[in-house]
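Worked example

This section walks through a single chain of length 270. The input is the sequence exactly as stored; nothing has been trimmed or padded.
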Amino acid sequence: MAMWSDRKDFIFKAVEEMYTDVASRPGAVFHFPTGRLACLFVGYSADQLDCLPPEATESFAGVGCPFEADVIREGDVVLDVGSGSGTDVLIAAMLTGPTGTVHALDMTRAMRDKLRRNAAAMKAANVHVLEGNAEQIPLADASVDVVTSNGVLNLVPDKRTAFGEIARVLKPGGRLQIADIALRMPVLEQSHADPRLWAECVVGAIVRDDYVSLLKAAGLDVEVIGEMDYFAGSVSASTRRAARGLGAHAIVMRGRRHSSACALEEPERS
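Given that input, the structure is written out below as tokens.
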């Protein structure tokens, strides 16, 4: 138990260091796509991005466009798990409007500080920035309508706990939109021991069917609605090679917390 706890601490530290770098050096080259070009590559429209401060998109490091799920409605309380510099938070803030709320959860101080500046620049008074990670979400049970996350949950060491936390904070029937990395083949156990590899978005990922099964075990009914070869956009030949070997790819999922209603029932539209 102590060894696993120590490894988790090292993983969180490695991830925090990586994304501090993404926040503070947006023009740098990373092994994964970043910035506005990455937003366009994974499916955001130029119209969506033009509404945001450039400082929000310059540190974007997501792996897909979770808004393809189309689950956020006006007045919703939304939680973004791993909010980064705010691309998805600010889009969600526009969708939910002044009567809604967006909680932005991130463990990296540099990203939280940048998000606060970006929210202030957009006068997004409905954005609330929280410090923390997916394994310990600092919100009450059944307090949010929608959870969104983009390229983050693959970085979390204890996914079962994280998925349980997401289910806990969602209201019964609450909705879910996730973009993340999934695999077609499992990672070798010895690779899990290197925290630096977790921060590179491949080693922490799990097999796609296992991902869906863990979400369902947490009480979250999900369906995969899109996928893409995300690592084709990497400038690193070794990263592309490792991703191909594991069948690493990005998926977008839509889901709902279990309730008496049928799973994946479409939310009512106003």
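What to look for: The radius of gyration is 17 Å.
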